[in-house]
Amino acid sequence: MSAFKWKTDPTENGQIDAAVPALPGTSARLLPDAARGIMAGVAMLVADQGGALVSEGLSDVFEVQTTSGLKPAPGVMIGFWAHRDSVAEPALAVDGFGPARLLAADGGELAPGAMRKGEYQLVVWDEAVASGAPAWRKVNPAPTDLGVLNLGTLMAALRAILPTAPPPGKGNLWFNNGQFAVTTED
Fold first, then answer.
1. How many CB atoms lie within 10 A of CB 20?
2. Which terminal Cβ of the chain has fewer Cβ within 10 Å, N or C?
3. Phi, psi of 140 (to 5 degrees)
4. What is the pLDDT of residues 72-92, one digit of tens each?
5. From the CB of residue 114, how many other CB atoms can be counted at a distance below 10 Å?
6. Which element (helix H / strand E) includes 159?
7. What is the distance between the alpha carbons of residues 20 and 31, in angstroms, rounded to a whole number?
8. Structure confidence by residue, pLDDT tens digits, 115-172
9. Contacts of 37 (CB under 8 A, 6+ apart)
10. pTM: predicted TM-score of the whole model, two decimal places
């Protein structure tokens, strides 16, 4: 049973999941079983996305076993903790499917060493943007993904948004000839 198999059209869910008996004419006695089945499916989904999974493997193929036993499909999202640093370009195998490419949040290739031990990885199966070569795509950028932000970029952004003359009021930040300043008078 897996919430990942459920359909958004209720009429398609009658036989999709044996743990949730939902065929027309189903006995009311099965209602408690259906409720427990739904609860179990939601609990599996929460575990698969909420940090209960830890990757395994010895190479740069990060292997993950979900609680729900899923098959990669559009919209499928899982979260896991990386068990080790990657050395080369990482890939991901989920529930025996794969390995498949593991892309950065922007759809670009992850650099060798981009996966860090102990970092939480939230990924979604991407067939739309990565058509022809489906892949797992990170949803959350890791600190290593933000390496393009440097001091020069940060300073330029601050210069663009901060006033260059003292604003009225005490304790206001402004940019004064290459240095940050705070107003001291009202």
1. 23
2. C
3. -100, 125
4. 888 889 999 999 999 998 999
5. 20
6. helix 151-161
7. 9
8. 899 999 999 998 876 667 889 999 876 555 455 455 666 677 677 777 888 888 888 7
9. 1, 17, 19, 20, 21
10. 0.65
